[in-house]
Amino acid sequence: MPDPLFPAVAAGSGKEALRFGDRKLSYAELGAVAGALAAELPRDRRVAVWATPTPHTSVAVVAALLAGVPVVPLNPKIGERELGHILADSEPALVLAEPGVELPAALDLPRHDIPLAGDGKPPAGEPDAEAPAFIVYTSGTTGPPKGVVLPRRAIATTLDALEDAWQWTADDVLVHGLPLFHVHGLILGILGPLRRGGSVRHLGRFSLEGVTEELANGATMLFGVPTMYHRIAEAVAADEALADALKSARLLVSGSAALPVHDHQRITAATGQQVVERYGMTETLMNTSVRADGERKPGSVGVPLAGVELRLVDESGAAVEEPGVVGEIQVRGPNLFTEYLNRPDATAAALDGDWFRTGDMATRDPDGYVRIVGRKATDLIKSGGYKIGAGEIENALLEHPNVAEVAVTGEPDDDLGERIVAWVVPDGERPTVEDLAGHVSKLLAPHKRPRVVRYLDALPRNDMGKVMKRALG
């Protein structure tokens, strides 16, 4: 029989497991309420969870996993068309929701309010390791969202690989303010501490004051996305309390998108801390990370996690062995998803044998550290016979004093094939295209300079802070 996903929940204790503001649950309390809710869930159907950033979402997910019932997390900001697609595709039996929260009319399912107190016990036994744990829907940038079926095996192996990479223990207290409908905020940020027997303090919503308060009062780890760390980088030099709180942390982790090197540098200059980056996807969970006991390299997502194999391939499918040469990342290992729900065609297209085609482009350093240069579809620019990663140019442009934010894309060019376009949010005076081209040419090769500059008040971003490049142009 597989080991339980949450040994500490099964054991029960007075130790704090979850804290959301002034709402706290010990492991014993979590086991009692989740056990009671688990007994009420249908065993042969999926359940949807209206994933508000509250303890209710955490209780619902733990209860479903204890019962062996697959969870379909729903973004509370979801649009009507996307919600309709997800419900029709996954066919959940009911929706679990925080009491008092209004649900959209399109969510036409039986509702079960999530309690925060109960007197049940976690069910005996553990479902099979290959049993589905979650169906998480992708962003759907190339069509309707696909339901990624994540087995219990992938959850356990990823969280255990991060235990190794980050030296994550039951003594750690994690703080974060991430949404709870996706891998980063829910699986890593809530289930990670619970699998370790540690604690998590959720801010409800990210704020510099919340981060300062929690890290100054016993939290040891911080999870965030680049938008959050950018706010930290902007403020930390002048905010002594924030700087002192960050200095006390054992580990600062950034993910879901690349953290600009300039923000790395500003945080390190003010605190001495070096932010750790990792790389994962919904279909693969976590693939690589900078290790807690390893060299920190700003701009790198580290090395493959234990159990994960990673290779780079060129357009012909041949392995890329030479350091510094761009190739598409493919991975395999126990961290992989099972399938796209109801989409055998998409599942087959995503695999090269037993390797998953990530669509992410990267290079490897001689020591094996991986550097993401962008998505194959939107961030690999073919200009003048060169293959150029947008991320490298973005990092260079962010070093310019008049660039607050930037995104780099390619657009058709009769001479070059594609020309490099910089979408710039200025900081003060607008930099000219000549100024930015010269700046990039000094830092990188001249063929990587932007040929066109377009100015914006803000970059279009999704809920995770990722720039939506398809909305540009």
CATH level-four homologous superfamily name of the domain at 7-189: ANL, N-terminal domain
**Spatial strand arrangement across the major sheet:** 2-1-10-9-11-12-13-14-15
Structural class: alpha/beta
| Regions with little confidence, pLDDT below 50 for 5+ residues | none
The tally of strands reads 26
> Termini, distance in Å?
53 Å
Family: Belongs to the ATP-dependent AMP-binding enzyme family.
Organism: Amycolatopsis rubida
Domain AMP-binding enzyme C-terminal: 392-466
Protein name: Acyl-CoA synthetase
Protein described:
It comes from Amycolatopsis rubida. One of its GO terms (biological process) is fatty acid metabolic process. Belongs to the ATP-dependent AMP-binding enzyme family. This is Acyl-CoA synthetase. Residues 392-466 form the AMP-binding enzyme C-terminal domain. The protein has helices spanning 7-11, 27-38, 55-67, 80-90, 152-166, 183-196, 208-215, 226-235, 240-248, 261-271, 344-350, 390-397, 433-443; strands at 16-20, 23-26, 47-50, 71-74, 94-97, 111-113, 132-137, 147-151, 173-176, 199-202, 221-224, 251-254, 276-281, 285-289, 303-304, 309-313, 327-332, 339-340, 351-352, 355-364, 370-375, 380-383, 386-389, 403-413, 417-426, 452-455. Among the domains are: 7-189, Rossmann fold, CATH 3.40.50.12780; 381-471, ANL, C-terminal domain (GMP Synthetase, Chain A, domain 3, 2-Layer Sandwich), CATH 3.30.300.30. The longest helix has 15 residues, at 152-166. The model has no long low-confidence stretch (mean pLDDT 92). The termini are far apart. The protein is globular and about 70 Å long. Helix 2 (27-38) crosses helix 3 (55-67). The chain has 473 residues and is of the alpha/beta class. A nine-stranded mixed sheet has the order 2-1-10-9-11-12-13-14-15, with helices on both faces. Strands 16, 17, 19, 20 and 21 form a five-stranded antiparallel sheet that branches. It has 13 helices and 26 strands. Strand 22 (380-383) and strand 23 (386-389) form a beta hairpin.
